[in-house]
Amino acid sequence: GLVGSDLCIRDSIRIGLARTDVVWFGEVLPQEAIDSAVAIARSCDFCFSVGTTSLVHPAASLPLIAVENGVPLVEINPHETPLSHQADQCLRTAASQALKEIAVQARAVL
To answer: Tell me, what's the pLDDT at 87?
Structure first.
């Protein structure tokens, strides 16, 4: 088999053995990643929800955890989501456009 073989990364990608570090729809998130995200949501100072339907859990619950802890929430999404009514501000535009403008404004303040 391939265990212990000398395949390089390029060969692994070419023959379909490599995969990005993502979780695909229908797969379960690693518990350590969930626990870490929940801890961050509980202790953050500000929360952005960017370009998500806010329907897939447990990720959809993370902004709500932040809001429950008094954190300001900005939703960036061209469309209303189930999270919209919880957000302090909703930016109805593409994520790329909104994030570029936020970065420009942040640089001006810093």
So the answer is: 97
pTM: 0.76
The 10s digit of each residue's pLDDT in 44-58 is 999 999 999 999 889
DSSP secondary structure string, the chain? --TT----HHHHHHTT----S---TTSPPPHHHHHHHHHHHHH-S-EEEES--S-STTGGGHHHHHHHTT--EEEE-SS--TTGGG-SEEE-S-HHHHHHHHHHHHHHH-
**DSSP-assigned letters across all residues of 81-108:** -TTGGG-SEEE-S-HHHHHHHHHHHHHH
State yes or no: cis peptide before 58, omega within 30 of 0. yes
Q: Within a 10 A sphere around the Cβ of 75, how many other Cβ atoms?
A: 25
